[in-house]
């Protein structure tokens, strides 16, 4: 049975959070000018000020108006936060000041990260040198260094100067693909560059922050310790990610296995990790409470929490947990008990004030919805079954936590990841407690690393536990029905599904029939929108030329079936298939690839005549043909001027397999001949609806 909770009275931070989130979303989509925001804030503040001078009777009469004005002020404050955080509004932003002839001076903000063919580093811009002056500039740039001896001399704090052209970060532009440009912008990163040994010079001076250097050195020491005492590459990679969030050594197939089985959350540093650290710190410092040194105990607990959070990479989900446990610890000091909803809302409010773009962070969203879902649903679910046996009780409570967490997180997971792990209960009931034991073992390994026999023993135990957990997860992943994938939810469908769940929860609490009606209405709206989507899917017919670098990739979609024309290695290359092509097929809900029964060089699709030229092209007829669409692919020897003598071309598309220099020549010819030309490398995928 749910307790009666008057949310608005006991958790006033909820109202502030809703207004702040509304302002953040509004500003991002509308991009309201700063002068308009400041004017609106001034008017609202003046109105609130005038309200304070009214008599008590008048204040009571206009209390609703005052509440609305206060909410609008918070909303406008959210708008201001987004405007200030957007690096593009900075007058010194590199995008406003950079020219191709500039020498750019940058500082490495992290140690080099090794990739397959290069080293990668995040850098901050110090300034630019032109022919006659040095100009201040700001922004973050991702630098890729060619693997050579000079790159090994670079480290955190190194300063380099180069004059290679900066490239603006762009999206691939394929339907349904990840918005990498927005993701980078939210981190203040807008440009990237590739440097070989002769493209840059290392400056003698270094630019380091002592605190950051200590953190990087600590992370390096932890990683070195784990690699020394834990055996196996898979085991080492998982141990590093589990303890400090270091994911560079994680095995990609193993991560996919954890994702498919619904336990990837144990790899990402989150609330579970902070809860274990908080519990351990409170246990260790318990003697201080008896000696009336509670203030010292709280300082130790908070210092440990925040140092671990920073050591783990200071990700949004980690900071959220640190802020929440800080509020809990401080409330304990002052002897006050606060609503968990107020604590959650306050921590989210503070985090979004620091970085409003964390609202779009998937980890941030899942972290808060998981905690909220557990708080609301865990106790009622746990009360379904009350076993007498302690072991069965522990297993049931673990399953109850997993079930509770899924209620609010499932709609968000389906929206972002398009899949649902059917066996999440079986995996979580083993992985959650086992990963907790592994985490404690790794902490013990670091503490006793100087006593080699003890460290060796702990390392053997930790390696065995990790190996068992990996084997268990991989075996369950191989079960034929372990994953239900291919889901495609729009934002509006996700919102209605969340509304239905939230209102149902409120009805269970307050027994208000209106909330049950809203919940049922929201669910009906979800079904209606989804039904319309499926009706459109069964009647769709379109051609998509994908932007896949150095590859030919074309889908012919007819209803829920599709034909694929392109390089056969794309069918087996997991990276290109999962990140470039598969999101589009999920978006369009196609699920069956048919055998190509057409001439893949010259064919009709719907009422359109289409040709693909990727080698020497032979006409099937001597007469001049009409082409609705001509796709140029790979590197055939041809001239556009000669081509139009054989075809009446309505539209030309240059796919991602064409070299950049040749695409430039073809685009120039198309412009001179007034033929519409779409280069997928610049404009993203080409989509033709029939």
Name the features.
single chain; 690 residues; alpha/beta; OB fold (Dihydrolipoamide Acetyltransferase, E2P); 5 domains; nine-stranded mixed sheet; disordered N terminus
Fold and architecture overview:
The model is unreliable at 1-6 (pLDDT under 50). Strands 1, 2, 3, 4, 5, 6, 7, 8 and 9 form a nine-stranded mixed beta sheet that branches. The relative contact order is 0.07. The longest helix is centred in the middle third of the chain and has 28 residues, at 390-417. The protein folds into five domains: 7-85; 94-208, OB fold (Dihydrolipoamide Acetyltransferase, E2P); 214-407, no CATH class; 491-538; 541-689, no CATH class. It has 25 helices and 23 strands. It is α/β, with parallel strands linked by helices.
State the gist of this model.
With 690 residues, the chain is α/β, with parallel strands linked by helices. It contains 25 helices and 23 strands. α16 packs antiparallel against α17 (390-417), α17 (390-417) packs across α18 and α17 runs antiparallel to α20.
